[in-house]
Design brief:
Layout (H helix, E strand, L loop, with lengths): L5 E2 L3 H17 L3 E2 L8 H10 L6 H21 L3 E6 L8 H4 L7 E6 L2 H6 L2 H6 L8 E2 L17 E6 L9 H15 L4 E7 L4 H7 L6 H17 L8 E8 L4 E8 L3 E5 L2 E5 L4 E8 L3 H10 L2 E8 L5 E8 L2
Parallel strand pairs: 1-5, 2-12, 3-4, 3-6, 4-5, 6-7
Antiparallel strand pairs: 7-14, 8-9, 9-12, 10-11, 13-14
Helix pairs in contact: 2-9
Pfam family, one: Methyltransf_33
Keywords: Methyltransferase, Transferase
Protein name: Dimethylhistidine N-methyltransferase
């Protein structure tokens, strides 16, 4: 593991947080967990497979935009920027911008799972041998600090691709963007990837693929709870479901109980009825008008946007305003 890798929260703290969040999730109605718990090492590998599925259009559509317009984006960001990527995963999109930047000061990938993140940095280090890479293990939904690069940065830029913003409720999205506004500071910027609204017949298969990879990804949350927290979810008693909630403008992923059953966690018992779901993910889909309003509410100004020819996905360049 690189000597400059930083872990902002200890594994013990993360386990306790996972436990408390799972207990809270199972105690409420409807039951709902945070999608951040998908991404242990096994879940991160499954998500990498999802990104290559024929039904999962977001990744290849966003990559197409980055490949076509990456140089234009880099010109907008300017020279000697420090690029921070919350939820960096395999860091396989950021090179499409990094390769066009003038004298980038540093790249700061940020993930909950430090081991998975670091394991995927070798290609980036080989491609950019002069770039200082400062990996940080942290939950970006909680307060975090950033390392100081050797080369003084002219501005901070948060690179937030992959439509991750859509995983948050409207209130949570505003709170996160306000946090990112504080992170970039005066004159900083956000390069944001967002999935746009489109027909349900396109959306639903993207979250319920024919090979069952997304189902395995979803069910891994329960397997992770069994492995790490000592719960006794019977995985065979749950099934994956994806639905389009048109009123809320979002895809919802559920784990649905196939039968009446009881689950035990930390000395507590939780009863499930047949067809009772655990909501495991929201994926909100935006309109351009809604994004303009969201930027204004959170201290940003939309300077540029880049879309694919079908207007399915958007990369947005937001600049912090006073």
């Amino acid at each position: 593991m690189p000597a400059n890798a930083q872990r902002l929260h200890s594994p013990v703290d993360e386990r306790e947080l996972f436990l408390q969040d799972m207990l809270a999730a199972l105690s409420q109605r409807p039951r709902q967990t945070s999608p951040k718990y998908f991404y242990d090492e096994a879940g991160s590998r499954l998500f990498d497979r999802i990104c290559d599925l024929p039904e999962y259009y977001p990744t290849r559509t966003e990559r197409g935009i980055l490949e076509q317009h990456g140089a234009d984006m880099a010109r907008a960001l300017g020279p000697r920027v420090m690029v921070v990527e919350p939820g960096s995963g395999s860091s396989n999109k950021v090179p499409l911008v990094l390769k066009h930047l003038r004298e980038p000061a540093a790249y700061v990938p940020m993930e909950i799972c430090l081991e998975h993140m670091v394991a995927n940095l070798a290609p980036l280090e080989a491609a950019f041998p002069r770039l200082e890479i400062l990996p940080v293990a942290a939950d970006f939904t909680r307060p975090f600090s950033l390392p100081t690069p050797r080369l003084r940065a002219r501005r901070r830029v948060v690179f937030f691709p992959g439509s991750t913003l859509g995983n948050f409720t409207p209130k949570e999205a505003r709170e996160l963007l306000l946090t990112l506004r504080r992170v970039v500071g005066h004159g900083g910027a956000l390069l944001l990837g967002v999935d746009l609204q489109k027909p349900a017949e396109v959306l639903v298969p993207a979250y319920d693929d024919a090979q069952g990879v997304t189902a395995a990804f979803n069910l891994n949350l329960l397997e992770r709870a069994n492995r790490e927290l000592g719960s006794d979810f019977n995985i065979a008693n749950f099934t994956h479901r994806a639905v389009w909630n048109a009123e809320a403008g979002r895809i919802e992923m559920h784990l649905v109980s196939r039968c009446p059953q009881a689950v035990h966690l930390a000395g507590q018992t939780f009863h499930f009825a047949t067809d009772e779901p655990i909501i495991t993910e929201y994926s909100h889909k935006y309109t351009h008008v809604a994004l303009q309003s969201l930027a204004a509410e959170t201290g940003f100004d939309v300077h540029r946007t880049w879309e694919d020819e079908r207007d399915w996905f958007s990369l947005q360049y937001w600049v912090a305003v006073d």
